[in-house]
Every structure is written in structure tokens, then in C-alpha cells.
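ZP: hey, is the FE2/S2 (inorganic) cluster complex queued? I don't see it on the tracker
AM: it wasn't, my bad. submitting now with these inputs:
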Amino acid sequence: MAQFNLNINGKTQQVDVDPSTPLLWVLRDHLDLVGTKFGCGIAQCGACTIHLNGTAVRSCQLPVSATEGAQITTIEGLSENGDHPVQQAWMEHDVPQCGYCQAGQIMTAAALLQQNPNPSDEEIENAMNGNICRCGTYLRIKAAVKTAAQKL
Amino acid sequence: MTKVNTKLDRRSFLRVSALASGGMMLSFSWLAGCKPTPEEELGLPKEWFELNSYIKIGENGAVTLYSPNPEFGSNVKTSMPMILAEELDTDWKNVWVEQADFYPERFDRQFTGGSQGIRQGWTPLRTAGATARAMLVAAAAQSWNVPANEITTSAGILEHKASGKKAHYGEMASLAATLEIPEEVELKDISDFKIIGHSKRNVDGQKIVSGKPLFAIDHKVEGMKYAAIVHPPAFGMRLKSFDKNSVMGMPGIQDVFSINVFKDDYVQNFFDTTTFPEIVAIVGNSTWEVMQAKKNLVAEWEKAPETKFKMAGFGGNSMDVTVPSGLENTSSHKSRMAEFIKNPGTVVRKDGDPEGMFKKAAKVIERTYSAPFLAHNTMEPMNCFADVKGNKAVIYGPTQAPEFIMGTLSSSLGIPRENIQINLARMGGGFGRRAYSHHMVEAALISQKIQAPVKMVYTREDDLSAGVYRPTYSATYRAALDENNNLLALHVKAGGIPESPLHANRFPAGALDHYLAESWDIPSNITIGAFRAPRSNFIAGAEQSFLDELAEEMEKDPIDFRLELLKRAETDPVGTNNDYDPKRYAGVLQLVKEKSNWNQAQSNVHRGVSAYFCHNSYVAEVVDTVIKDNKPVVESVYAAVDCGIVINPDSAANMGEGAIVDGIGNAFFGELAFNNGAPTKTNFDTYRMIRQKEAPKKIEVHFVESTENPTGLGEPLFPPVFAALANSLYKATGKRYYEQPFAPQLEMGNLRM
Ligand code: FES
Ligand code: FES
């Protein structure tokens, strides 16, 4: 066990966990930030995507010890009222089916648009390819990313 | 206007306010309630008045509607309340939706599966809405001292035009809640619908996009422990022993023990499918810690002997189930299936003289199709929260079928049903997998043992290797043609491990004078279960691929060929057991022909068509493939659907798009194989799932305009896409695809996948 000071969604949070604990489980079990989801645990599905200093990363493969000093953003902190342009676009296209993958999809999309405000179809497909949606909402995801790009 | 008798389903009209306010009904209460529109037209009322099991109205006019069925992504949590709101004649913007928990005494059929939620909920939900409306009208009539039949309603407002009196529902709710339930109520004319048929957004949408806790895996209470499970590494194996000390000293680990899902004398029901009745549970302070301990657990496994048990089937009859012993392999599965293909099967249907026709045929075409086992891979792995203390249990988990696990819970826990509360979580996908809810029993037994609340979570590897798969199937189709290429007879012989995919009375049965359908199956200890459109999800692909090849052989357009057969089935059907309506079947083919511009395909686009009927609905699909940079790309998919009245069109289209993507993914990549009883793939690094890049670039879902009662929608768009894709790939590559998944064969053909 060791103490870590984490900067999550603009707030400093202290946790006392094993240094190898993936950030995913620190968020979910220790900090009650359950919007970040567990899907595979091996960086293959994207359900656990968060932003680390603005870049989309898979939190299931990110030991908490590697996140001290970094700016961590989770779905809960993407916007104050759930109205980030990407979230709004997701509402507009009524993207979710079961909804389980969507926080990860939104976090990947938001990071993409941060770096590339006007992505081509191919760039969207490449960026979103690491996020599995078992319900198959891929077309709506792509359409929503485009809508968000126009709003940003 | 249709009149319906409310006596048919009295239980829906029980008013159980005591339960609603004091019991667990409100334990997930307001915070879990969802308002369909973000703009708050009406705030929280001070008091609610319950009109029936589904409907509460606040004194300010706000309406709470309970959605009875579990939600796994088919959006029933929005569409079922839409049906209630329509007949209640309220304004959708003043509606809050709450997920009803499992209350069999209040609700009729809290089951999500078989695409039956809307079909079977249609009349009960309309009746419940209309009854509440009639009671509000009666209350207004009494208050205003005017005849009830002079009162009109619109968007939550009652009005008596002659006297100029007006009130919103909230003003009449307290009186209405005390009135007798009318024996007969009127349902609206379909042409008067204002909510049904008009797209409404997912009532949970805002919560989903902002990461609010919605799923069982998100649940947490004070003092809750975390649990992981360890199950045998292969089908055909069981636990021999385990060494508690191998994990007990590890950080955060509280206890390790084994649990037995079933009591010895328990008679399993149809949905009790459980691969490993005895597993090891590890309990600790956090998910990560129990997952670490899981890796360290030293356990010995042994081969399980053949087992026999009684299983209660549908309709009260019971069957004897034998689970064979042994460690199975995909290679031996394939060779055994090859034997069965050669041997005669069980005749399930025979029309005319098929054998005679095959003897005198000028030409016989024979093709065999196959598909592997598939894992459901719901995005949210299996998990469950349970709090069992003394003689009481609260279970909160993802289940499609709470009523089918209640008896198991009661037996295994030794707690009477009335002391067990099952609360229904939103599910991160279901696809049939969560109709089998032994995960709830596992969590409950763990909680009972430690007498504390617990959340049990499967790893992806546990989830993928715990069984309840789509079976592996095979189907051999034969057609007899005369010297003029006329179709004389059709023969299908289909089977699988451990069940046959055959639907012998579906098309093209009924369209052919001479038809033979045979079935076979091979027992196995690999557990299977419903997977989006069970059986149809394979046989449709085989049948519709074969018809495509047959049409080509007969030099006919594939759509025209199907339409000809359907015309025959309509005008002069063969046999009496045909379980489809040829007219509606033809209707979707005609619609897809029109919408896809079938006759004007572009030259570089390769198209395939397919049509299928299942879950009471008709679907035809056209897939357009192009080869780009040596890669097959699914450019467009057009679907035409006849599922009767569509409640929520945009969300219905969403689900249709999802089913098409799901079908394309499984056709290209879906495959689970076994080596010495163990699945060879246990996570997404090896089990390939369709991703953004492989999804079609465009999907159009067109619904046939209809005034028929609604039928299934979650499943019917899935089965036809396999053949539409295969037929399109044939056009693109010149090769037929008989074996799923297609990607390895495409790669052998030097295409990149
Ligand atoms: S859970 Fe992290 S990528 Fe799947
Ligand atoms: S919406 Fe269900 S996994 Fe994406």
C-alpha cells in the first residue's frame, strides 16, 4: 500500500492503494467514479478510456503509480453539466443502446477533437477503432463525432 | 375505437401504495428516475397518487411511468412508457420514467427476450394507460358534476367544453386514485396516436453520456465487499480441491470458499443453464485485490463424470438431461458433424415425394453451410450485487429473466421467495446471455456466506469461458432441378452441437410441392443458450445463401425468384403448418428492392440480398460491398422491416443498425473454438469483435407502414444479414462462402481483413 495524490477532474484526491492498481479500479472502487467502465482489462475494448493530460488512454492498463502529477479527466469531469459538445452530439443522435461502452467512446472522441478539430471520416474511424461497441452503434458514433466537430 | 376488458389482467391494476412508499420500490427511487426531456417543465410533486401498477400522478401534473421489463439496450425503458403515455393521453415532457423492480404480483411478464416485450406488452400497457385516463375523466365528471362522456383529454389536460371547465391531471389525481377501476375502457384509434410513432430520445440518454451509475457493476453500498470467482478451466472438468492458503495472506483478501449453485434436490428450470455448478469464490476489499488473488489461487481440477438431471421445460413437462463427460475439441466436433451430415436425420417435415423427385432430377445441387460456437460478449461482464442477511435477500443485477431465477435463488439460499427482492439493473448488453442468471445465485450465496453485501464481478476471461454460447451448426441444402432448370424439390438436413437450427415450417416450406426437412443433434457438455434470434441466426444464412445460388443456377434475379416462391405460397400453399404470411414476406422484399434501387446498381458495387421471417416480423436486406485497396468494404446496407406498428422509429432504426453491424461482425469474425474442453479465446485480443472500421459506411432501415399490432424487432434484423453479406461477397470475389467466419477465407483469397 502507498499513498497517492491524484489530480482528477480538477480536484486533488488522495488514495491509499497498492501501486500496481490500475487507475480504472482506483476510480471505480476507491473514488466512486464509476462512469469509467471495465470491459476487458487488457486495453482492447476502450470502455475504460480517460484523459491523461488531455490524451485518451486506457485506464485498465495504467498503474496508479504512473498517474501522480498528471491531469486526469474522467467522463464525470468532461463537463460540469454533461453538456460537452461531444455529449450533446451523442444526445442529438441518440447514440446509446445499452450504453455501457459510451463513456469510453465519448472520451476517445473528445480527445480526438481536441487534437484534430476537423477529422476526416478515415481519421474518425482510426481514432475510434479501439473502442468496441457490442451493440453496434458505430454509425451513430461517427455521425455524432462529426456533429460535435461542427459545434466545437 | 376498441374496447378492452380490464378484468383480463387484474394484477396490473392493483394499487399497492403501501408497498410503493414503504417497500423497496422506492429504494432506487427518484435518483434513478429519468425525465425524457432535459428542460424541466414540472418539478417534483409533493405527493404522488397511484392509479395502477404502472402510473403515478403528482398533484402538480407530473407523471411517473414504470417500465416493467428489464432494459438491455433495446430501449424498452423508453418505448414501453411511450405506450402508457399515449393511452393516458399525457404530455411526454411531463413524464418521468422509472425502472420497475421485479414485482410479479404487480406486473405480468418482466422478461426481456425473444423480441416479445413490445408485442406482448402492447395490449396490457395500452389498457393500463387507458384505465388511468378513464379514472381521471371519472374524477373530473364527479367534481364538475357533468357526464363523463362529455369530457375530453389532451396532453394531460381534462376539459368539459360546454361548461368551460378545465383541469390538469394532477388536480384530479387524488380523487381518481380512490375510484373504482372501470371494467371496460376504450383504446385510442391508431390514427389518433400522438406519441407512438414519433421518435423520443432514450430516457436514460443524459445519464449514459455523463457517466452516472446505471449498471449493477456500478452499485456500491456501505460495507460492501468485492468478490471474484474461479471456475474450472474447461468444459467437462470440475473442482477437486483448492488451497485456501495460496491466497489468504494476500492484501485485502478476506475469505476463500467454494459455493454450489444448486441444492441437491432442486429441479432445474429451462433457464437454469449453469456450466460449472461448483466454483471458488474469493472475497476481499476491492476488485483489483480479488482479481490478483484469483491468479494466485492453487486449485486442483478433475474430469467430471457424466451427469443426469431433471429439467422442468416449458408448460410444466419435465425432461431428462444427460451431460456427457469428456474434454471436447473443435476438430472432433467437425468430424462428428461430417458424419451426421452423411447419415439420415429425423424427418421433421415432408411434403409430396421429394425422394422421387431427386431420383428423376436432371441436376442436383448440394451445398453444406456451417458456423462455429459464438460467445455473447456483453460489453458489461457478468456481475451481480447481493445483500443476504439472515432470512432476507436483496439482489441487484443484470438479468433478462428475473422470474426464471427466483426459484433457484429461493432454493439455493433456503429463503422463501417473498423474502427475496430482485431489483433490475440496466444491463450492459444481453443478447440472450442474461436470460441465464446463475450469476445472481453465485453473488447471493457469497453474500449469504459472509453475511454482508457483496459485488461479484467476472473478468472478461471468466465471462468468455463460462459457457452459455450460441451452438455450432451445420445445414445441408439440396435442390432437384429438371432439364429445363425448374425446381422440383428441396431438401434440408440441419443439425448442431448440441441442438438443431431447423425451423422446418418456415419459408421455403409451403412454396414447394416436394420438400423434405431433417434434423439431427450431437450431445455435448459445452453449455448453450439463446443468442440473438436463436437458430434463425444460422439457418437464415444457410437457406438464403442457397436460394441465391439456386437463383443463379436457374438464371433468375434473386429477388424475383424469392417473390415467385412466395406467390406460390400465397396463392396455393403446400401444407397447413406454414408459419409465415407470404404477403408480408413479399412486401419487405419489394420495399428493399425499391429502397436499394436494386435494378440500378453501380458497376463497382457488389450486391447481395436476403430475407427472413422470425419473431413474428419480416425483414429483407441488401448488402453492398466494394473492394478497396484489396479489402472488402461493406459500403451500404438497406433493410426493409415489417414489424407492425413502430413505437419509437428512430430508436427502432438504431437497434436495426446494431443488429446489422452485429451480423456482419459475426459473419466475418465470430468464432469460439475448443481445445481439450477449454475455449481457445478468452478475451478481445483473440476473440475478434467488429470495430468502427469494419462497420458499414451507411445503413438505411425502412419500416413498412402498418396498422398491425407490433411484433419483434430486436432480433429479426440479425439473421438475414449473414446471407446478404455472403451473397454480396460472392459477387465481389467470385467465390461462395459456406463456412463462417468468412474473414479467414477472404484472407486466403489474398484479401486483407
Ligand atoms: S477495460 Fe480497458 S480497454 Fe477494455
Ligand atoms: S451501446 Fe452497448 S456496447 Fe455500445
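AM: back. Residues A 38-41, 43-48, 58, 60 surround FE2/S2 (inorganic) cluster (ligand 1) (CB under 6 Å).
ZP: great, adding it to the tracker
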